Amino acid sequence: MTPSIEKTINIIGILGLSLVIIGAYTVQFALGELPCPLCLLQRVGMLMVMTGFVMNLKFGIKPAHYGMSIIGALFGASVSMRQVLLHIVPVPGQPTGYGTPILGMHLYTWAFIFFTMTIFIIAVVMLFGKQFETSFNGSNSKSSKASSNKLEGFAMFAFYVIFILAVANVVTSFLECGLGPCPDNPVNYMY
Amino acid sequence: MSLLPFLILTINLFFIYKGMHKAAVITFIINIIVSTLIFHYHITDTININL
């Protein structure tokens, strides 16, 4: 697998996970369902996965960057699994789960599936070792240790998307929770 | 408190944009630690569970 194909895979990964967060924002604003603290942590996990991908685009493809993405995915998977287990037993007289199910499953269940799929896909991508031998500019990865490439085209677009999502999450989580911890079942914005 | 990981992540992305590899990795590690602490807070705060 050549570095240019790897670069494309990383861009697709960033844009795909961005769509998931945009979908979560759609549920937040269109259906008026505020994200719970664990939902926010799942968004953090997705952004951490994307951070590893962006580092691949900026500094060249390295196993360490994929490792960062896997750490982010493991964090997000553990948070989403915690939330699945929290709501897995129905309580009589109470609504099942948190929020409206989308395509038959709640958002945190979908998040768990996405995180495990991300780990699987990264593992498959890492099987192709040639990508680590050369970076985008064709130089050897050992000699170009942590050298930065210029983000261009779709890579720049992907970076802008993730940056806008990160800033948007800072703003919306401040509006929802203020500077303190979020309430477990938020019903309206604090500000 | 809940916005802290997003704030660190934004700083992390800024370091990546500027090409500061080491600073980006350090902020990523800080983010993991902070997020895990917040996760731990929400586990122990909400419900008594037996592990």
What would your notes on this structure say?
The complex is a heterodimer of chains A (191) and B (51). Chain A is an all-alpha fold. Chain A is 63% helix and 0% strand. Chain A is globular, with a radius of gyration of 18 Å. The model of chain A has no long low-confidence stretch (mean pLDDT 88). Chain B is built from two helices and no strands. Chain B has helices at residues 4-18, 21-46. The model of chain B has no long low-confidence stretch (mean pLDDT 89). The A-B interface holds A 37-38, 40-41, 43-45, 47-48, 51, 54-55, 58-59, 64, 68, 71-72, 75, 78-79, 82, 86, 146, 148, 151, 159, 162-163, 166-167, 169-170, 173-174, 176-177, 179-182, 184 and B 1-3, 5-7, 9-10, 12-13, 16-17, 19, 21-22, 24-25, 28, 31-32, 35-36, 38-39, 41-43, 45-47.
What's the structural blueprint in terms of helices and strands?
The complex is a heterodimer of chains A (191) and B (51).
Chain A: H1 3-30, H2 37-59, H3 63-87, H4 107-126, H5 154-177
Chain B: H1 4-18, H2 21-46
Helix pairs in contact in B: 1-2
Features:
heterodimer; A: 191 residues; mainly alpha; 5 helices; 63% helix; B: 51 residues; 2 helices; 80% helix; elongated
Low-pLDDT parts of chain A are none
Q: How many angstroms separate the termini of chain A? A: 49 Å
- Beta-strand percent range of chain B: under 5%
- Low-pLDDT segments, ≥5 res of chain B: none
Helix proportion of chain B? over 70%
Query: Would you count the extended β strands of chain B for me?
Result: 0
Shape of chain A: globular
Number of helices of chain A: 5
- Overall structural class of chain B, as computed from helix and strand content, comes to mainly alpha
Characterize the biggest β-sheet of chain A: none
State the secondary-structure class of chain A.
Answer: mainly alpha
**How many helices of chain B does DSSP assign?**
2
Q: Give the beta-strand count of chain A.
A: 0
| Multimeric state | heterodimer
Rounded to the nearest angstrom, the radius of gyration of chain A is 18 Å
Shape of chain B: elongated
Mean pLDDT of chain B: 89
N-to-C SSE string of chain A, H for helix and E for strand: HHHHH
